[in-house]
Amino acid sequence: MQSPAVKVGLSIAIATGLYGISFGALSVASGLDFWQTVALSFLLFSGGSQFAFIGVVSGGGTGIAAMSASALLGIRNGIYGMQMNALISPRNWRKLLAAQVTIDESTATASGQIDPGEQRAGFWTAGVGIFILWNLFTAVGALAGNALGDPKQWGLDGAAVAAFLALLWPRLKGKEPAAIAVVCGLATLLAVPFLPSGVPILVAAGVAGVIGWFSRQRLPAGMAPDIEPYDEPYSEHDCHHMVLPEDATASRGRGKNGPQERRPE
Amino acid sequence: MSLWFWIVVACVVSYATKLVGYLVPAKWMKNERMSRVAATLTIGLLASLTVVNAFSSGQQLAFDARFGALLAAAVALVLRAPFLVVVIAGAAAAALLRLAGWG
């Protein structure tokens, strides 16, 4: 346990894996069965997208609306994949494994390290560690949720609201993210009475996409909750990670606290 | 289409999205616009999902115990509570308000 990246990766794996319980319980409360819940954690494996899928289903939305919301929310994982490909460069079949565990947490853990060996260690420890614990605790949560009986009596619909707010919260650093959240929230409220369930969420995604397309400001992707692997909050230099370094060596010149120096625009 | 079908599609799309990142030429990343859209989409979708789960009941707007859950979660987040505590606070608020006879 000499490696600092392994330590960080393990502590993040435990914190994140644990809240698989809430996903499992909320998923069965929203109407999915045990195996559907387990399949989402094992195969889809991206917390935000999984919550989005069950969030649409529990509101009475169709399967295709749930799938669309989950797919749109997962686009950022593709961006993380490009960063991780440049940073940790997995070879051959390892690429296939690395792709599955490319999520907020593994990306944040790897990006916060300077040494290429540590970057790799952080990525794999966080990624694989979360994968194992997240699946384990999803199953525990699903079994517990099934045993609870009436979800409303236990306030599980309120738990879903809280979960979405908690996923959103760490991404609201700064004025622009907050403004986007308010605009998309209002668009949703306006659309709910006029469109079938699930579709208002896609309307909000459209609004957000248009804002992103025309906006000129750099935006941090924001990270999942409970993810502050290093002293300096990841969110503060998050937007720098969204831009690929000139080459692999550029990223190695960073200090431990992330890119203090401005990269050439 | 059954729910299983869309679950499988969602899983395939999720994995394909992640894998594409490892397969495209690095210079594609230079496209800042794409990164920005990915970021705004994440914020917009999560905000929308919060609102739908708090204020909609099918195709109708509703104001019930889930509003209490939203407030409780916000307080917990301001107090920097970890994710699970926030979720439990939301559940407790909704359950207690219902016990008290609201929503």
Secondary structure layout plus pairing:
The complex is a heterodimer of chains A (265) and B (103).
Chain A: H1 4-18, H2 20-29, H3 34-44, H4 47-58, H5 63-73, H6 75-88, H7 93-100, H8 104-111, H9 116-148, H10 156-168, H11 175-191, H12 199-214, H13 234-241, H14 248-252
Chain B: H1 3-23, H2 32-55, E1 56-57, E2 60-61, H3 65-78, H4 83-99
Antiparallel strand pairs in B: 1-2
Characterization of this structure:
The complex is a heterodimer of chains A (265) and B (103). By secondary structure, chain A is mainly alpha-helical. Chain A has a domain at 4-160. In chain A, 68% of the residues lie in helices and 0% in strands. In chain A, helix 4 packs across helix 10 (156-168). The longest helix of chain A has 33 residues, at 116-148. Chain B is mainly α. Chain B is 74% helix and 4% strand. Chain B contains 4 helices and 2 strands; from the N terminus they run H-H-E-E-H-H. Chain B has helices at 3-23, 32-55, 65-78, 83-99; strands at residues 56-57, 60-61. Chain B has a two-stranded antiparallel sheet. In chain B, a hairpin with a 2-residue loop joins strand 1 and strand 2 (60-61). In chain B, helix 2 packs across helix 3 and helix 3 runs antiparallel to helix 4 (83-99). The chains are: A mainly alpha (265), B mainly alpha (103). Chains A and B meet through helix 3, helix 4, helix 5, helix 6 and helix 7 of A and helix 1, helix 2, strand 2, helix 3 and helix 4 of B.
**Gyration radius of chain A, rounded:** 19 Å
- Biggest sheet strand line-up of chain B: 1-2
Shape of chain B: elongated
By DSSP (H or I, 4+ residues per run), the number of helices of chain B equals 4
Q: What is the CA-CA span between the terminal residues of chain B?
A: 33 Å
- List low-confidence stretches of chain A: 242-265
Q: Work out the number of β strands of chain A.
A: 0
The largest pleated sheet of chain A is described as: none
> What gap, in angstroms, lies between the N and C termini of chain A?
39 Å
What is the N-to-C succession of helices and strands of chain B? HHEEHH
